[in-house]
Amino acid sequence: MMIDLEHVALTYQSPDGEIEALRDISFTVEEGEFVSIVGPSGCGKSTLLSLICGLEPPTGGRVLVDGKPVTAPSGRVGLMPQRDQLFEWRTIWGNVTLGLELEGGPGGAAKAQTQMLLEQYGLGAFAQKRPSQLSGGMRQRCALIRTLATGPRLLLLDEPFSALDYQTRLSVSADIHGIIRREHKTALLVTHDISEAISLSDRIVVLSRRPAVVRSIHDLSALRTLSPMERRDAPAFREFFNTIWKELDINV
Ligand code: ADP
């Protein structure tokens, strides 16, 4: 088991008082699985990722990665943030090796591996270019390669496609999903987009409004053999969509 959350709770202390973000979160993610978390805005999805990353401790329950309690950030876990956060003053190579530099400088093997990832995923010719010279999709690939460069086994993705327009988002999310599968990584994706979650995931965890509890967990193995694009045309897609939509209870 890659992630094991046992009755996880988190209450923030703020100048205005306590904010109970997570009340009681329990679920597991198996090695190699792609799991999405959906929930109303502000319910605590990003908070949950920061606990799994080791950026803050839970105020209740336990967070285990690889069977061990998480106490601090570790190289086993890579985070892909909402914006690609590529630095314009660095080349693409400078950006994808940033994590390695922070870990003490890219060793020969890690450098060769990063170069291989750039080549394999169509960015080899862009190594000396700047981020502004890349398309939105290429920037996302670059951000993913930067995360993969440090060799994490678990990827946490915090709304990584939210800055892209709808059409680009469809193809970029399928592309990034394909890379994660080919690299045999375990992934936990936070998204507010139900369709995106259904098109990419093995399972979907639906959270309630804040303070968040797990409302339901959906197993999408019926769609497993279909690509993200094919899933969107499958009859089961609409059924999952309608069920999750009702569970989210979004008022307009
Ligand atoms: P989501 O990702 O689901 O939109 P977040 O995890 O970002 O939600 O936030 C959950 C709740 O906790 C929100 O009400 C937010 O305002 C609050 N919150 C997040 N971070 C902090 C913090 N560092 N201090 C106090 N409150 C916070």
Attribute tags:
9 helices; binds adenosine-5'-diphosphate; about 250 residues; 2 domains; 10 strands; Rossmann fold; about 35% helix; 10-stranded mixed sheet
Written description of the protein model:
There is one protein chain. The chain has two domains: 3-76 and 154-250, Rossmann fold (3-Layer(aba) Sandwich); 86-151, no CATH class. It is 36% helix and 26% strand. The protein has helices at 45-53, 92-96, 98-102, 108-120, 136-149, 166-182, 194-200, 228-233, 235-248, and strands spanning 3-14, 17-29, 34-38, 60-65, 68-69, 77-80, 154-158, 186-190, 203-207, 212-219. Strands 5-4-1-2-10-9-3-8-7-6 form a ten-stranded mixed beta sheet, with helices on both faces. Strand 1 and strand 2 (17-29) form a beta hairpin. The chain is globular, with a radius of gyration of 18 Å. The N and C termini lie far apart (39 Å). Adenosine-5'-diphosphate binds next to strand 1, strand 2 and helix 1.
